[in-house]
Amino acid sequence: VTIENVVIAGVGIHPFGRFPDITYRELGAHAASEALLDAGITIGEADMAFVANVGSEMAKGQNVIEHLGRPGFPIINVEAACASSASALYLGAQMIRSGSSEVVLCIGVEEAPRGFIAASGYEAWQIKSGLGVNPVYFALQAQELLAETDATVEDLADVSVKNHTHAIDNVNAMFRKAVSREEVLGGRLVCPPLTLLMLCAPNSGAAAVVLMSETVARKRKIEQPIHVQGISLVSRSPDDWFVPAPSFRAHGRTSLSERAASVAYEEAGIGPEDIDIVECQDTDAGSELIAYRDLGLCARGDEARLLRSGATWIGGSLPVNPSGGLLSKGEPLGASGLGQVFDLVAQLRGQAGSRQVPDARTGVGHVMGAGHNASVVVLQK
Amino acid sequence: VSFVLADLVVGGGEGDIAMPPLGLRISRCDGCERLEFPSIPTCPACGSETDLDTASTGVLGGFTSVLHAPPGVLVEIPYDIGVVLIRDKLCILGLLVTDSPLAIGDEVEVTPYRLGDGHLTFAFRASRQDVGP
Q1: pTM over 0.90
Q2: Which of A115, A143, A189 sits opposite B67 (nearest CB)?
């Protein structure tokens, strides 16, 4: 059995932000049109589509693709909270690897209101009892990081400072203004130690990719194909702690993101030392620091030191969230993973403009979220 | 006494001295001894059957505050949420009710808390056991 290699032949995006006058169908169709154009194909030349979304109506993919034509191919809707569009990418890659499809369109789209994310999977008793509050989980996790390592609240603020600085030239980000450490620390307290600027905001947006088998991409003379060298999708284990769990193990806790990274790295035949750029799930500033160790970028305990060294800034040796991350882009739940892929592809193609990381060859995308799902993808040019 | 979810707790009849003090209904795995809350009949780690057990006290491991609550919450803001360590094995999230500030490492005990709709939920408060003579 030959396993087909998977490449990204085209990418598209609708900026992340708040667009009360644009429907989610239009957002998704916009990103998909861009991706098809980028790949030089029509919708009818794809074999199928996976469409990721969390909060919209039934048959969402069918309704998004109606704006592009009526290709008649299978359209499958995918939902896995923050890992929704990464799950669509995972499925698309598996279809091509297996030989079932040659060209797959993956779309991620979300239209979300301002404020708290509803229906994160809590039981009714947790919500009524005041325990179903997402930022509480991130705050407790950040406090644990501050207690167990030398990380400080200033380090948390600096993650936000870094990512907001990175986003200044990103036309697809919602927040494009630099912020100072003092502004982050002095902002509205949400759940101590986290202030408003240390948390990402749910918003609206869309991203899409066209996947092809390497054979078809060669035949079609796709310029600058980006290889999907490894991709993982993992869910909760007995000893993980996650939103919305009411309890967790005191000792011997395991990390979902660590497992996702190890599966993807092994598949790609790489180690953390081979990575040039990372887009990670910075739901809050603490989550980015924890991702440093989970993704193997540093040893446990060295998270803040890696940040302070400047390595994870653009211009450093291992830029993390050169797009500005979710802290600056906002997080359209169904689109965030493919949004990372959009940015990684731009970097690997050398098209990231003023945010370009020189000689980026290997990029890693990482998402994780409610219900406990995580995905890591390794992309190479 | 009507709890927001009957299976969360055991004991604790208000004014009923025949009932044991309020505790959380946890389960303990027969095989690997993992504790779970809320209780579950089968261990998610090793698949063994579990026994029901009760946790009435613990140690405060960390806490944060909720200053803005999402819709559906029946607790008045601002309020505190703690992580309570049970027998050095399990961490449970719960409301913290206290008149004086609590510190990490303090002993806490389970206490009922009346929600906005009249139902009860559980909370943790400073343990009374170390009150002197």
Answers
A1: yes
A2: A189
